[in-house]
Amino acid sequence: MKATQTIGKQGELMVIGELLKRGFDVYLPAVDIGGIDCIIKTDSGYKEIQIKTREEAQVLLFDVKEFTPRENFFIICYNLKEPDVFWVIPSKVFKEKSQYLKKQGRYRLILGDEDSKMRRELHIYRNNFFQLKEGSKEGEKELKNLSKKIRKTGWQYLKEKYPTLDAIDKKIKEAKEKGYSQGYIKVLENLRKYKERHK
Predict the structure, then answer these.
(1) DSSP string of 13-43, one letter each residue
(2) Does the pTM exceed 0.85?
(3) What are the sequence ranges of the domains in the chain?
(4) Which of 41, 52, 113, 175 sits CB 3.0–4.6 Å from 25 for a disulfide?
(5) What is the sign of the dihedral through the CA atoms of 77, 94, 135 and 30?
(6) Which CATH class is domain 4-135?
């Protein structure tokens, strides 16, 4: 089994490589700045990224030291056994969906296996790099095509989970109150339009 530091560094390189491949300007901090592994620059400002990596875990989970959620802070979770999957999770969502381990001062997010409830709930954040561009010109273009980017299984799941306009409206309200990603809210709004067309 690889050393934890080796696994972590391998994950960082994979994630940073993916960011570069997608055209992001990536900067690496010269000193430790509260667990931030890299910073990306867009025309709408800077986004701080923490990268968490796992390998050979019976239950896929990610631990992050206690932090204060903020709009420009994202946690990218990466499993070496799933090389093409990157979970790009806003810090607010990570904290909300995690268990707080008081003695360790950590938040633990349990993604579980491929069919887990948590993976279904967080499906919108799977390979969702476009949210890092929100507010930028590139981001606006990608938002217009959001529904096309969602895997059929994820779209089907949302249709089943929110079967009525009332259910969708309640979820949109909750998402706005809790500060969910604008990308996630946009998906719900697209779902509402879909339901209206197929009454």
Answers:
(1) HHHHHHHHHTT-EEE--SS--TT--EEEEET
(2) no
(3) 4-135, 145-199
(4) 41
(5) negative
(6) alpha beta
